[in-house]
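Appendix B, example 12.
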Amino acid sequence: MLPETGDLLDTCRPVRQILARVGDKWSVLIVMALRDGPRRFNEIKRAIGTISQRMLTLTLKGMERDGLVKRTVFPTKPPRVDYELTELGHSLRRPVEALGHWAIEHELLIASAHRAFDDRGDTADAA
């Protein structure tokens, strides 16, 4: 049973942080980069391409804290560090991939909507 409209925001508060993580573009791209197995930091960075080292570090730490990514340090010289999706992280693949398919399927419609909006010169805030 869905909560009343007034209670809906209160109901969403506990999952807001989770939705922010799984809806973050970097997290989505990291999930896709790790979908086929463990990778090293620089392999993930190359696979994504546009992410800074700092942002990748922060996002991986956040995903590790959320239980989506496992970090394994191998005692070699220099130390080798691999990142891989946990079982929970793999469970996120299905919705991430579905969202990606939806975006690809609707890319032209969204681009058309952008052009129509921009052509109207509609810059006023929705109030």
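DSSP finds five helices and three strands in the chain. The chain has a mean pLDDT of 88.
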